[in-house]
TrEMBL record:
It is found in: Secreted, Cell wall. This is Pectinesterase. It holds the Pfam family PMEI. It comes from Zingiber officinale (Ginger). Keywords: Aspartyl esterase, Cell wall, Cell wall biogenesis/degradation, Disulfide bond, Glycoprotein, Hydrolase, Membrane, Secreted, Transmembrane, Transmembrane helix. Acts in the modification of cell walls via demethylesterification of cell wall pectin. The keyword Secreted applies. The keyword Hydrolase applies. Its EC number is 3.1.1.11. InterPro entries: Pectinesterase_Asp_AS, Pectinesterase_cat, Pectinesterase_inhib_dom, Pectinesterase_Tyr_AS. The chain crosses the membrane at residues 31-53.
């Protein structure tokens, strides 16, 4: 079967007429064979186009349709709900074509999300319960975001002119968006932490179908990729150079003058077009493929800034991470769910920030108080500062790259469920409250098929002041599939010899987490006293570490070059 698979892949992506004809007759027979095996069925996906062409005009038997759905659903975490929901999809003329069936699974997830969102709109919290009202508002926003990501996936599956098959980058896009759709639902439920009135249970019930169906679609997309990888198809090795678009000019501008020409300048003293960052962001066009550049002159800007989900390719730069600073103080203890405490929120895709600082000054007694949250796909932060105490940097979802940034905080300094790389960053644990423990990371991957995780590469982890006396750790796994790797970094003496901390005191994390270290140095880098968790590798092999490079984790070659920000795509 494996050799057959490789034969198939040779035609993948560039199916010419002869290959096409040969495949057409072969694939119908093969389809019947491979349907018996779920893993093999995925191969069919890749040749689905020739199949689809050959069977147009005929209807498959109901039995063969059911077999196909069952085989496809066999790769999911919830095969029964996958089978029943896809089979029952109303109005769809179901086929045996996995590509089309995957589309049906997306449509089913979209409907369930819309139903959950409608339910959330009808919950009426008791008046005066600020936290609950905020949790419900965040939840509706998050479900809306999940719907958008499914919609993006459906749009990608729609055949465009001249695009017969999906390529590796597009499969990675699908996995990224569906991973985020799952994360958004997790985050929605987390928002009810600390609320009363049984709303967590109500929301969970309203979202039950959406949660399973989204996970099912993610599993189907991932399983296909998995089959390709098993067949040694060089998925991550296709370095794509930037293929045009509005952001190219920015790189040129950067190379020529060091700074791009701003579309709007912000200055607190009135010497720019506007005085606040928010006013400048309001001017950014909706759904623009072109960069909109905001220059923010030195100063402390006390405001909450949101780059909205339809504000794409917003680029910001300041006069230095300590000179241009945006500062807020929303916090968990004050009644704001963690998700909305951030001083600066980036939602729209392609957000870039350079040489500026983000701060939340609520203080350690106020618990979670986020300086910046990014839910922006393909967001880039270069020479930025992030400073708070608990939960400084919320790398919430989608793909993110941080380079030469300074990140200071106490508990869960960097947290969330993005696929995020921190390269050449300085991470500085500060003094927490005396009963607390510092953790550099708290990654939150909840579904085994998500393509998320944190990688720290060539970073330096050093105490901020000599007065840091609480124990500090590299991280604590927050969910069952949490994934974090620290590699080629300098680990200072601030880090406890045990290295890592359990999320639940006195209980080992599940075996399903993926944690590791690779080629670190520094006074805190000895792994002799490290935890012994089955999911943790104190000395990863080069092959393992290679799965967490910029190329492998965030497909950085596809999108970072356009920003002109320097990066290292591999282990060097
Ligand atoms: C599902 O997959 C397992 C192996 O992963 C296989 O043993 C089983 O037969 C499959 N079931 C169906 C209905 O395809
Ligand atoms: C299903 O197929 C029938 C016959 O080919 C067609 O008339 C109908 O529009 C199709 N329905 C959908 C929802 O595509
Ligand atoms: C999905 O996207 C299309 C545009 O690509 C838009 O017209 C449609 O309203 C969107 N649907 C939802 C449910 O957001
Ligand atoms: C994948 O296909 C998209 C859409 O046609 C294209 O823009 C992109 O360059 C392709 N990527 C690769 C790696 O071939
Ligand atoms: C979930 O799906 C099942 C099967 O379609 C349906 O009976 C149930 O009402 C749905 N639940 C919610 C909360 O929508
Ligand atoms: C920003 O300004 C440049 C000229 O410097 C212009 O070409 C571009 O269209 C502007 N971007 C937007 C989104 O308006």
């Amino acid at each position: 079967m494996a050799m057959d698979a490789i034969e198939f892949f040779k035609g993948y992506g560039r199916v010419n007429e002869t290959v096409d004809k040969r495949l057409r007759s072969a694939t119908r027979r093969r389809l019947i064979l491979v349907v018996a095996s779920a893993a093999a069925l995925l191969l069919v996906f890749l040749v689905a186009v020739p199949i689809a062409v050959s069977k147009r005009g005929r209807s498959p038997s109901p039995e063969s349709v059911a077999d196909s759905i069952r085989a496809m659903c066999n790769v999911t975490r919830y095969p029964a709900s996958c089978f029943s929901s896809v089979s029952a999809a109303n109005g769809a003329n179901l086929t045996t074509d996995p590509e089309e069936l995957f589309g049906v699974s997306l449509a089913v997830a979209m409907d369930a999300l819309a139903a959950a969102s409608a339910a959330a709109s009808e919950f009426a919290p008791p008046s005066k319960d600020r936290r609950l009202a905020a949790a419900l508002r965040d939840c509706r926003e998050l479900l809306g975001g999940a719907i958008d990501r499914i919609n993006d996936s459906i749009a990608l599956m729609r055949p465009a002119a001249g695009e017969a098959t999906l390529n590796a980058s597009e499969i990675e896009d699908l996995r990224t968006w569906l991973s985020a759709a799952v994360t958004n639902q997790d985050t929605c439920l987390e928002g009810f932490e600390g609320t009363t009135g049984g709303f967590l249970g109500k929301m969970e019930a309203a979202m039950a179908n959406a949660t399973e169906y989204t996970s099912n679609s993610l599993a189907i997309a991932t399983g296909i990729l998995g089959a390709m990888e098993k067949s040694r198809f060089p998925l991550h090795r296709r370095r794509l150079l930037y293929a045009g678009g509005g952001r190219e000019w920015m790189r040129r501008a950067l190379q020529e003058k060091g700074k791009p020409k701003p579309n709007v300048t912000v200055a607190a003293d009135g010497s720019g077009q506007v005085r606040s960052i928010k006013e400048a962001v309001d001017l950014a066009p909706r759904r623009s493929e072109e960069a909109f550049v905001i220059y923010i002159k030195a100063g402390v800007y006390k405001e909450q800034v949101v780059v909205g989900k339809d504000q794409w390719n917003v680029v910001m730069f300041g006069d230095g991470m300590d000179k241009t600073v945006v500062e807020g103080n929303l916090n968990f203890v004050g009644g704001t769910p963690t998700f909305s405490t951030a001083t600066f929120i980036a939602e729209g895709k392609g957000f870039v920030a350079m040489t500026m600082g983000f701060k939340n000054s609520a203080g350690p007694e106020k618990h979670q108080a986020v300086a910046l949250r990014s839910s922006s796909d393909r967001s880039v932060f270069f020479r930025c500062g992030f400073d708070s105490f608990q939960g400084s940097l919320y790398a919430h979802s989608l793909r993110q790259f941080y380079r030469e940034c300074h990140i200071a905080g106490t508990v869960d300094i960097i947290f969330g469920n993005a696929a995020a790389t921190f390269q050449a960053c300085l991470i500085r644990p500060k003094q927490a409250l005396l009963h607390q423990e510092n953790t550099v990371t708290a990654q939150g991957k909840s579904d085994p098929n998500q393509n998320t995780g944190f990688a720290l590469q060539a970073c330096s982890i050093q105490r901020l002041d000599s007065d840091v006396t609480v124990p500090s750790y590299l991280g604590r796994p927050r969910k069952d599939y949490s994934t974090t790797v620290v590699m080629q970094s300098e680990i200072g003496s601030v880090i406890d010899p045990a290295g890592w901390l359990s999320w639940v005191v006195g209980e080992e994390p599940p075996n399903t987490i993926k944690y590791g270290e690779y080629q670190n140095n520094g006074a805190g880098s000895s792994v002799a006293g490290r935890v012994h968790w089955p999911g943790y590798s104190p000395a990863m092999s080069e092959a393992e570490a290679n799965r967490y490079t910029v190329e492998a984790l965030i497909s950085g070659g596809d999108w970072i070059p356009a920003t002109g920000v320097q990066f290292q795509s591999n282990l060097g």
